[in-house]
Amino acid sequence: MNRLIVALALSVAVQLTAATLPTVEGETLAGTKLSLPLALKGRTALLVIGFTKDSQKQSEAWTKRLKTDLPALDTWSIVDLEDAPRLIRPMIMKAMRSATPKPRQDHFLILTKGGKPLKLATSAANNDDAYLVLLDAEGNITWQTHGPVSDAAIAPLRQRVP
User: Fold this and answer.
1) 103 preceded by cis ω (within 30°)?
2) If we measure between CA atoms, which residue out of 67, 76, 68, 71 comes closest to residue 30?
3) Residues 135 and 47: beta-carbon distance below 8 Å
4) What is the DSSP string of 61-92?
5) What distances in angstroms separate CA 144 from CA 87, 99, 160, one per listed residue?
6) Which helix (H) or strand (E) holds 111?
7) Strand partners, 136
8) Cβ proximity of 114 and 50 under 8 Å
9) CA distance 5 to 90
10) Structural domains of the chain sorted by starting position, each given as residue range(s) with its CATH number in brackets
């Protein structure tokens, strides 16, 4: 009986400490409205998140490298425009749409609200970095990093992806 109680307590403790991605809603460059992590339920996915314009170079470098090194990985680009003035958001989105190949636009999510919980979940201290979050099939964060792409940064990801 005591073992059962200890096992149950440990199970609850593990579930309470498992970080999950907060719910964020946005629109893809293809025009589809999505809610994450719900839209990714049942599959492993990697999110490459940019919180500022200055994070764009790192985010693009990560996406390009992942396309080459881990092509089967379901990779999503997320850009948080919450802090951008509303007046210029359509211009920013138009520029991103024209710079993104059509097949990739349905995996490119634009957030205009709800970015603050995402910053907390990623522990975003330097908003100019690219933030990467690996989600399991249940939406739990199983790995994360931030900064420029490098062999040292991608090695732990390779170990976690089937």
Assistant:
1) no
2) 76
3) yes
4) HHHHHHHHH-TTSEEEEEEE-TTS-TTTHHHH
5) 33, 26, 11
6) strand 108-111
7) none
8) no
9) 55
10) 2-160 (3.40.30.10)
Residue 18 is which amino acid?
A: A
Residues 6 or more apart whose Cβ sits within 8 Å of residue 59: 48, 49, 50, 77, 79, 130
Render each residue's pLDDT in the chain as its tens digit; 162 residues: 555 443 434 333 334 345 888 999 999 999 999 999 999 999 999 999 999 889 999 999 999 999 999 999 999 999 999 989 999 999 999 999 999 999 999 999 999 998 888 888 888 887 899 999 999 999 999 999 999 999 999 999 999 987
Between CA 34 and CA 125 the distance in angstroms is 26
Identify the residue whose tokens are 């379901």. 74
pTM: 0.85
